[in-house]
């Protein structure tokens, strides 16, 4: 199988490594807006060739992976489908689905497109962030598969099963709602925590010296790229605002308990939060 990957960053590059590792594809063609990233992707062996003509890159592939930031995705995906033949399959790997699927809902090649979201990643970006085995044991969400051709869905299922990943099926609205609750809020909270510490602790050396594993793990997502996350927040704005309002409410409640020196109440709230261990061991 020949695979064209549009966007050679963390997810696109890692998917190329995983597909190659498992023998699921023979030849990889890259499309990358950044010449520096394109050269680096070749040096790292993420792809075998770089193609500057989008339509030509699509025509050469059995599978096309669109792995660009979400705002660019909305513009690029219709162009990819314009160049797609009836035997080809196109997937995205985006973190929001509602806006994207609406943009291609009426496209004549909509059936060749399968919307997927691998729930995997790190705080790093670019070709050097690509990691072999990134998807092992993780969940991949397939969205609105009833609007995709059955053979296209079957191919995508086969590939992600082989990586191996767990498959979950959601409609676009449910996907965007639940990812706001369990993914997007984590990132925006991490950005806020980093800004808080940088504002209050003016001595960078003290942050370095005193940052424990807990702080480092909580704030690591603040290293994530704004080029990736601002489009996600924009496209999933209402769901993110909803969960942010609840998060602010919980923070205010904890603050009030501490201000009143209500340590029994604080204990109860922490014990209630501890229930998450029943879901995430």
UniProtKB/TrEMBL annotation:
A molecular function annotated in GO for this UniProt entry is:
prephenate dehydrogenase (NAD+) activity
Q: Which Pfam families match?
A: PDH_C, PDH_N
User: Which domain of life does this protein belong to?
Assistant: Bacteria
Does the keyword field hold Oxidoreductase? yes
- InterPro entries per the UniProt record, alphabetical: 6-PGluconate_DH-like_C_sf (IPR008927), NAD(P)-bd_dom_sf (IPR036291), PDH_C (IPR046825), PDH_N (IPR046826), Preph/Arog_dehydrog (IPR050812), Prephen_DH (IPR003099)
Task: State the species of origin.
Answer: Hymenobacter armeniacus
Annotated signal peptide:
none
Does Ligase show up as a keyword for this record?
A: no
The cross-references to NCBIfam families, in alphabetical order and at most eight, read: PRK08507.1
Could you list this entry's UniProt keywords, alphabetically sorted. Oxidoreductase
Q: Where do the Prephenate/arogenate dehydrogenase domain residues begin and end?
A: 1-281
The molecule here is called Prephenate dehydrogenase
Q: What is its EC number?
A: 1.3.1.12
């Amino acid at each position: 199988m020949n695979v064209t990957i549009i966007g050679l960053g963390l997810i696109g590059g890692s998917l190329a490594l995983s597909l190659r590792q498992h023998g699921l594809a023979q030849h990889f063609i890259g499309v990358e807006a950044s010449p520096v990233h394109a050269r680096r992707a070749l040096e790292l062996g993420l792809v075998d060739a770089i193609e500057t003509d989008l339509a030509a890159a699509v025509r050469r592939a059995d599978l096309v992976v669109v792995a660009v930031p979400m705002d660019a995705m909305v513009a690029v995906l219709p162009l990819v489908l314009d160049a797609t033949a009836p035997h080809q399959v196109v997937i995205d790997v985006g973190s929001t689905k509602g806006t994207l699927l609406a943009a291609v809902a009426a496209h004549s090649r909509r059936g060749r497109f399968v919307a997927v979201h691998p729930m995997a990643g790190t705080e790093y970006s670019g070709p050097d962030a690509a990691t072999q085995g990134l998807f092992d044991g993780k969940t991949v969400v397939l969205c609105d598969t009833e609007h995709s051709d059955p053979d296209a869905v079957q191919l995508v299922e086969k590939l992600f099963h082989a990586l191996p990943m767990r498959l979950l099926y959601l409609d676009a609205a449910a996907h965007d709602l639940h990812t706001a609750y369990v993914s997007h809020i984590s990132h925006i909270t991490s950005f806020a925590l980093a800004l808080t510490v940088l504002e209050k602790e003016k001595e960078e050396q003290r942050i370095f010296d005193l940052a424990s594993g807990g702080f480092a793990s909580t704030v690591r997502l603040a290293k994530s790229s704004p080029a990736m996350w601002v489009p996600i927040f924009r496209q999933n704005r209402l769901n993110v605002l909803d969960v942010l309002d609840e998060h602010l409410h919980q923070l205010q409640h904890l603050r009030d308990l501490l201000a009143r020196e209500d340590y029994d109440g604080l204990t109860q709230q922490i014990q209630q939060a501890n229930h998450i261990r029943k879901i995430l061991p």
